[in-house]
Model the fold of this input.
Amino acid sequence: MKNTIGKGTSDARDVAAGHGPLFEHTVGAPVVAAVAVRAAAAVPGVVRVEPGLVGLVASMVRAARHRVTGLDPAPIEGARVELDRVADGHTVRVEVDVVISGQDQAAAVGRAVQRAVAGAVTEATGLTVAEVGVSIIDVVWDLDRP
Amino acid sequence: MTAATDLVHDLLAALAGVPGLRPATPVATGRAPWGWNRDAMAIDLNPAVSRGADAGHTVVVRVVATQLPLPPLVRRAEQALSAVLATSELPVTRLRLEVTDLDGAAFA
Done:
């Protein structure tokens, strides 16, 4: 997962015209991942976003680091984010691993996750989402069983 | 205090006036017992490598977001930080805001 995702908000002409320093901002991959996980988990038919073993370990390390700083980091486990550079800036590609309910059509749930994640990331960060990949890791048939 | 120290102090004060963003510090926030402001670690002042410090500095401000959406927060931060840089003794040619992480409170 790349650490930062760039997106400029002013250009060199502003500096030349005396409008102050060139300003740019970047959005970290954890920010995008947190929004993606939150959006995916809220989709009907998604039982949970699956972190995987690597995600769990990374989660523990990140949570410990942030609790020292007094923060409660938003969960990012189960989503991977990559940056794509295009002619007019950057776009992001997001991959989400989910477990869905057996009572819903897998393809429909997958498409709903794609729409939800793309919309939420764009709205929350202003970044353009080029692609959302959804992997259905498991299907839960009896939701009452742990 | 040096001009750089003053600038970092002023940038942190400006950032404090932007709700939804807080300095991204690698260690505990707030003031250390000996009075050193750890939040200052969220700000880097880098002189231009190729042309020396006289050619201007790049200011990098790392923040954690505690609110969403980001675009209005970024605009507010740009205005607040740019206002400080406009009155700075140090020449600054580039301002970079890095939103490094998201706090769970953003979804509350």
In short: Residues 106-125 of chain A form the longest helix (20 residues). The first strand of chain A starts at residue 4 and ends at 8. The beta strands of chain A are 4-8, 22-28, 46-49, 79-86, 89-101, 128-140. Chain A has one domain: 28-140.
